[in-house]
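User: Sequence recovery, please. Input:
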């Protein structure tokens, strides 16, 4: 299980929750580089979510959708709870974001998926 109280993961989560997606990506990528499978692919999926949200907020819907599809593909290989994260609700939210992008929703109308560690309370 990933330790979401460790500095890079918790700092990345805090950045993600503040919609600082590029910064979250950077924190999580530091951890991703050190992992082995299957945690490596799992965290890569989360890194892809942060990159997708960054692209979305920069107006790159095509890039965001592509990254979200790749993230969903990786997350489809995970149990409903993996790496200390509630994966099933996250998959549903990612699908909803993809549908909103396809429906041409304005980026400001799209709520980023909730990445929620199983042992943490939502902020």
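Assistant: Recovered sequence (123 residues):
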């Amino acid at each position: 299980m990933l330790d979401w109280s460790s500095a890079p993961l918790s700092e990345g989560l805090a950045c993600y929750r503040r919609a600082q997606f590029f910064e979250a990506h950077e924190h999580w990528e530091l951890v991703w580089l050190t992992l082995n499978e299957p945690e490596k692919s799992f965290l890569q999926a989360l890194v892809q979510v942060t990159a997708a949200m960054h692209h979305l907020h920069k107006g790159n819907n095509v890039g965001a959708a592509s990254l979200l599809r790749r993230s969903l593909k990786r997350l489809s290989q995970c149990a409903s709870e993996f790496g200390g994260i509630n994966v099933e609700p996250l998959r549903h939210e990612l699908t909803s974001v993809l549908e909103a992008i396809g429906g041409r929703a304005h980026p400001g109308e799209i709520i980023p998926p909730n990445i929620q560690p199983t042992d943490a309370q939502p902020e």
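The two ends are 22 Å apart (CA to CA).
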